[in-house]
Amino acid sequence: MSCDRADTVLHAYFDNEMDSLGAAEFERHLEQCVECAGALAALKDLRSSVNRAQLYQKAPALLRKKILVDVAAARPIEIAPARATWQWLAIAAVVLLFISVGWQVASVHRGEDSNAVLAAELVDAHLRSLQPGHLSDVVSTDQHTVKPWFDGKLDFAPPVRDFAEQGFPLQGGRLDVIHGRTIAALVYGRRKHLVNVFIWPTTERDASPRTGSRQGYQWINWRQGGMEFCAVSDTSSSDLEQLQRLFRD
User: Fold this and answer.
1) Do 29 and 128 belong together in one domain?
2) Alpha helices, DSSP H only, in 15-81?
3) What stretches in the chain show pLDDT beneath 50?
4) Suppose 199 and one of 5, 22, 184, 242 were both cysteines; which one would form an S-S bond, judging by CB atoms 3.0 to 4.6 Å apart?
5) Number of other residues whose CB lies within 10 A of the CB of residue 57
6) pLDDT recorded at residue 97
7) What's the pTM?
8) Local structure of 124: helix, strand or coil
9) Cα angle at 49 between 44 and 53, to 5 degrees?
10) Cα dihedral 199, 192, 216, 27 in deg (nearest 10)
11) Domain that holds residue 190
């Protein structure tokens, strides 16, 4: 294979490891390069074949029994004298106190960082969807067509609603991947703009909407009814807030 991108870029694109700009550039390259397009198709066929084969084997009972026997026969841990034990416990308590305080301080920054990472991933997913052929897996303005399409493809049922009368017509839906998890993406129109509404289940309690912008795109994120939502678009933030209220009502 003569195209050097088949070795340096193709696998990163196939594994969703590229940022949105790099992915868009490589997709333009795919339109002109027959070799890379063929290699990508072969990788997709291979992945489909592996998934259909369900190459998963449960560990045999004898192996499990052997592991349990080896664990039971392992050398026991020697117990230190009582005085030394209390000294070590005191030291451990101090260490845990410092760790606890540090964890509480760091968790605030970690929460902010995780929100920024999530927003970046969702904006990247929105940009990828704007590439030709990536916007919808099921194209329909009928919620009774889009909602059943997700059956069997996800381990949850996303709420699919059409808001055409309120200015947000449903246009379709697709599967997407965020944080390594397959989620639902609903596509809505807003005048001449497209809005992606990403949905996935959560165990966290309901939360009021948070808004932000990245790379010129607006986003709004909220949780309700065991689901987390994030709408992304280049339309105005007020439009996204209106769409969020429609989902809430």
Assistant:
1) no
2) 20-32, 34-53, 61-72
3) 1, 79, 101, 103, 105-111
4) 184
5) 6
6) 56
7) 0.57
8) helix
9) 150
10) 80
11) 113-248
Indicate whether 22 and 120 sit together in one domain. no
Alpha-carbon 14 to chain mean position: 16
**Residues 245, 246, 248, 249: is their CA dihedral positive or negative?**
positive
Task: Give me the residues paired with residue 187 across strands.
Answer: 172, 196
Our count of domains for the chain comes to 2
Same domain flag for 11 and 132:
no
In a domain, 95, yes or no: no
Query: Over the stretch 189-246, which tens digit does the pLDDT of each residue have?
Result: 999 999 999 999 999 999 999 999 888 899 999 999 999 999 999 999 999 999 999 9
H/E stretch holding 135: none
